Amino acid sequence: METRLDPKRFARIHRSRIVNLSRVAKLLPLYNGDHTVVLKDNTELGLSRTYRDALYRALAIEH
Model pTM? Predict the structure, then answer.
């Protein structure tokens, strides 16, 4: 399914989660390089270190 999604609009944030980038409100840093992704509806999702750099690039955020 991931291969059918537009990578400019969607990003994997965990091995079991893909988010619509337009729904991301903010990223909250945690310990050990992990983050929480907060969506515009205040849903909180874990962002693993494996996908952190790719998400930052997709959102054009420097860290």
Answer: 0.86
